[in-house]
Design goal:
By secondary structure, the protein is an alpha/beta fold. The chain folds into two domains: 165 residues, P-loop containing nucleotide triphosphate hydrolases (Rossmann fold, 3-Layer(aba) Sandwich); 71 residues, Conserved Hypothetical Protein Ylqf, Chain: A, domain 2 (Orthogonal Bundle). It is built from eleven helices and six strands. A six-stranded mixed sheet has the order 3-2-1-4-6-5, with helices on both faces. Helix 8 packs across helix 10 and helix 10 packs across helix 11. The two termini are 25 Å apart. 37% of the residues are buried.
């Protein structure tokens, strides 16, 4: 399980820090992407320090998978802090048409100067930053005329910077997703691992699925029981790992001797959470 003692890819962080620093002068604004389900945990604290010289637009991805009620609280939270924030979803198209106007508003003075110099029509340039698997490449592909950014539902796919032209008047610079060197809270690491920002092959997926079931029992017991046909009235009688085991039984994930294939059940539960099959779930409220 994630812990405060584990160091996450410090070399990768240093490389991305250099990449951001070297290219910041080439862009007009930065676009920081967070995960709607974990707005706090998915915010790399290093990014604000690295990009504070530029206007910043905050986009929260995968909005269709997040709890609508808590999303409204987050919208108010960001607005109260004076942050430019849009919740969006590449699959449903929610919020996509708000991105270009928001970017132009942030860069209104620069655009006016370009217009005065006869350079109206010139594209803004934006740097996309965020943690692994948060949806940067999916957004770029949604906005681009043709798909140029490689996309897979796993962290660490974008390894180098990529410039992509779009049809909304903004050229986008994609950068590798990166985690910061050390998590101060165990819960932050769990949130990142549960939602897929940390590679499963370096995690204990059995323990991670157990932590997920514990969290779902606490926050969304009805959705957990509806998805896996569990008896909600008896849910609190089960230990966390027994919930995973019970789900494995319900799905028929059995091995020799009638025992539950715990590993298979754990991977299935994590996969269904990340695919939004358990329902609209948010793990953090402001």
């Amino acid at each position: 399980m994630p812990s405060t003692q584990i160091q996450w890819f410090p070399g990768h962080m240093a490389k991305t820090r250099r990449l951001i620093d070297e290219n910041l002068k080439q862009v007009d604004l930065t676009i920081e992407i967070l995960d709607s389900r974990i707005p706090l945990s998915s915010r790399n604290p290093e990014i604000a320090k690295l990009t504070n010289a530029k206007p910043r637009l905050v986009l929260l991805s995968k909005a269709s998978q997040a709890d609508e009620r808590i999303t409204e609280l987050w919208k108010k939270h960001f607005a109260d802090r004076g942050e430019n924030c849009i919740f969006y979803d590449c699959k449903t198209g929610e919020g996509i048409n708000q991105i270009a106007p928001a970017a132009r508003k942030l860069c209104a003075e620069k655009l006016k100067n370009w217009e005065n110099k006869g350079m109206d029509g010139r594209h803004l340039r934006a740097m996309i930053v965020g943690i692994p698997n948060v949806g940067k490449s999916s957004l770029i592909n949604r906005l681009a005329a043709d798909k140029k950014a490689k996309v897979e539902d796993r962290p660490g796919v974008t390894l180098n910077k990529q410039w992509v032209n779009t049809s909304i008047g903004i050229d986008l610079l994609d950068t590798p997703g990166v985690l910061w060197p050390k998590f101060d809270e165990r819960r932050v690491g769990e949130n990142l691992a549960i939602t897929g920002a940390i590679k499963d092959d370096i995690m204990d997926t059995d323990a991670l699925a157990t932590a997920l079931c514990s969290r779902l029992r606490e926050l969304y017991p009805t959705k957990l029981c509806e998805r896996y046909k569990l008896d909600e009235s008896k849910l609190n009688e089960l230990r966390d790992w027994e919930i995973v085991e019970e789900i494995g039984k319900k799905r028929g994930f059995l091995i020799k001797g009638g025992e539950v294939d715990f590993d298979r059940a754990a991977k299935m539960i994590l996969g269904e959470l990340r695919d939004g099959k358990i329902g609209r779930i948010t793990f953090e409220a402001p």
